[in-house]
């Protein structure tokens, strides 16, 4: 049982396991499919605009991405894309959905170690069914007291999570790779954050500069460094 009343929240995609690399690999194959129609920059720009337009309807995740990819392909080819090519696109999406969960460096031992002293929450956004499958296949789900799969990660979402689980934001530390989704909303609510950059950041998650929050914001290269940060933060909370 946890020995501290402090709570640590973890993002999932690109914090605990690889995710964006799968999208990037699919992007490369998508550009190749449309190369005879448009250059890569045009394909990327148009697809991103379609994703952002459809986000309120489809939400985050592979399924919404693939719907936007098909729509963009029809637009960029003026309807000339074949049924066979669309079938190929859908196959790329199925590959992403079926891809095994690949944990990042030091994740299993770090999460297991922290679970002995702190209440851990997993807070991830995306398609419910796909995220549930990834969590189940990760092998680390048992270390989390609660698992929250949400449609967005903003101040309203975190406020609802805190209320649901009786969490004082000042006693909460969020760990994640996205400043926009994992760090900024929690800091705004009075919590603390540990930023763990992933080597690829989706354009929609891009933030121009690091926020300022003395004593409440930390940056590390790998989760292997997290226990030391948590100990220092815990000491400051005592």
Key terms for this structure?
238 residues; Rossmann fold; alpha/beta; DNA polymerase, domain 1; 9 helices
Task: Please sum up the structure shown.
This protein is α/β, with parallel strands linked by helices. It is 49% helix and 12% strand. Helix 1 packs antiparallel against helix 4 (83-98) and helix 2 (40-58) packs across helix 3 (62-76).
Total of domains: 2
SSE order, one letter for each helix or strand: EHHHHHEHEHEHEEH
**Annotation, overall tally of beta strands:** 6
**Residue ranges: pLDDT <50 for 5 or more in a row?**
none
Shape estimate: elongated
Beta-sheet strand percentage? 5-15%
Structural class: alpha/beta
Q: End-to-end span in angstroms?
A: 19 Å
CATH C-level label of the largest domain: Alpha Beta
Helix content: 40-55%
Say which CATH homologous superfamily of the largest domain is assigned. Answer: HAD superfamily/HAD-like
Give the strand order of the largest sheet, numbering strands 1, 2, ... along the chain: 3-2-1-4-5-6
Structure annotation, total helices: 9
Q: Which fold name is given in CATH as the topology of the largest domain? A: Rossmann fold
How is the main sheet built?
6 strands, parallel
Look at the structure and give the mean pLDDT: 95
Instruction: Work out the radius of gyration.
Output: 19 Å
How would you explain this protein's 3D organization?
- With 238 residues, the protein is of the alpha/beta class.
- It has nine helices and six strands.
- It has two domains: 7-17 and 102-237, 3-Layer(aba) Sandwich (Rossmann fold), CATH 3.40.50.1000; 20-98, Putative phosphatase, domain 2 (DNA polymerase, domain 1, Orthogonal Bundle), CATH 1.10.150.240.
- It has helices at residues 20-33, 40-58, 62-76, 83-98, 107-115, 128-138, 155-165, 179-188, 226-237, and strands spanning 7-10, 119-125, 146-150, 172-176, 192-195, 217-219.
- A six-stranded parallel β-sheet has the order 3-2-1-4-5-6, sandwiched between helices.
- Helix 6 links the parallel strand 2 (119-125) and strand 3 (146-150).
- Helix 1 (20-33) packs antiparallel against helix 4 and helix 2 crosses helix 3 (62-76).
- The two termini are 19 Å apart.
- 32% of the residues are buried.
């Amino acid at each position: 049982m946890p020995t501290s009343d402090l709570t640590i929240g973890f993002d999932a995609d690109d914090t605990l396991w690889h995710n964006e690399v799968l999208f990037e690999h699919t992007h490369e194959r998508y550009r190749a499919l449309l190369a005879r129609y448009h250059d890569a920059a045009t394909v990327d720009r148009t697809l991103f605009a379609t994703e952002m337009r459809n986000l309120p309807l489809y939400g985050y995740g592979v399924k919404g991405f693939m719907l936007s990819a098909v729509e963009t392909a029809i637009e960029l080819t003026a309807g000339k894309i074949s049924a066979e090519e669309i079938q190929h696109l859908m196959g790329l999406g199925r590959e992403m959905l079926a891809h095994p969960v690949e944990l990042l460096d030091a994740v299993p031992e770090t999460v297991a170690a922290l679970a002995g002293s702190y209440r851990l929450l997993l807070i991830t956004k995306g398609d419910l069914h796909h995220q549930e499958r990834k969590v189940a296949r990760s092998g680390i789900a048992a270390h989390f007291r609660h698992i929250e799969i949400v449609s967005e990660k903003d101040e309203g979402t975190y406020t609802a999570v805190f209320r649901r689980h009786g969490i004082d934001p000042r006693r909460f530390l969020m760990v994640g790779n996205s400043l926009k989704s994992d760090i900024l909303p929690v800091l705004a609510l009075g919590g603390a954050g540990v930023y763990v950059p992933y080597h690829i950041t989706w354009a929609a998650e891009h933030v121009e500069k690091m926020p300022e929050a003395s004593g409440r914001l930390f940056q590390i290269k790998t989760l292997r460094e997290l226990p030391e940060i948590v100990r220092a933060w815990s000491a400051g909370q005592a």
